[in-house]
Design brief:
single chain, mainly alpha, transmembrane, Glycosyltransferase RgtA/B/C/D-like domain-containing protein
Length: about 160
Amino acid sequence: MLLSPLADRRFKAGALPAAARGNWLFVVVLLAGVVLRVVTMLGFRGVLWFNDSYDFLRIADDPFPHPLRPSGYGLFLWGLKPFHSLALVTLLQHAAIVGLAVVGYRMLVRDFEVRRTWAALAVTPILLDSYQIELEHLLLSDTLFTVLIFGALLVLA
């Protein structure tokens, strides 16, 4: 007998389909969001560029306080510098937003007792909005800002 409170929370065979059964609308929206992101990653190899992107890469190459651009995103890129892959940056940005949608849905359902249908509809814009997906694919600080702000709100909730 284990004294861990997580002992009875181990993964059981068939647990995933049972969890999806009660959350079918969210599963459909989540899968659609993931498919859209995969199509975007395959359709636009690497990253999409914006005027600010060059400044962020300059900050990542040699960290310095930029007078116009937030330094946090440049430091985020600097941390990924050893991997030499801008595709990894977009993959992480896409994954972070999908993860936020999952955590947001879970929190709405479990902590705030929102009905599953309404919770699924609440996270639909972040998963299916084409502008959001484009922002995730751009080399811009917007996605990191969204993740940090939404994460802070989740911690405070």
